Amino acid sequence: MDPPTAKPPVGARVLRAALHSAVGLCLVVALVHVAVVFLAVAPSNALSRRYSQQINAWVYPLFEQNWRLFAPNPDSFNRQILARTAHSDSDGSMRVSPWLDLTAVDRAAVTHHVFPSHTAQNLLRRAWSSYVDTHGADDTARSERAAMMQTYLSNIAADRVTDHDKNRRFGFIQLRVVTRPVAAPDATGGNRPSTPVENRLLPWWKVPPHGK
User: What is the Cα Rg of the chain in Å?
Assistant: First the structure.
């Protein structure tokens, strides 16, 4: 007669059940994520239109998808994004800072780096592209996603300014975007100077207080 099999300790059974639950939860989240991203990139259909708000809330801005890997569409313009800040003094007057070239700061973080940061290369540029897509030319947010992209862009700019000058105090930020066509090479191999095709000044945005 075989000896009775000893039951595993209670702690081991609880740990095993927790592990199974965690694996099951990860599997469910992964399946939901794949399904939502599929609906986001698939042609418009009854399901994606009905749940468009939930799909956009999940996908943007962290899981945005595009097909540029397979059909590259390089930019034909160079965009220079500048920012300045303001804060209220004790007497109620506004103190405005000089313009800071955020694009130049990002470019300096990438130049001569063997493994440049993806955020320095694309974060600010993609945030601006998404802002333009949702706002058009009048800087008016007419949807929840547009308002979210405005907050996203202002937060990125405020964080970049703070990283550049940790002692700067401000509660408002303003962006200016100068757009120039990609310059054609001249006879000497250099680039011809290009004239800006757009010099866009955005409104002042209130941001959480930065600095001391």
Answer: 25
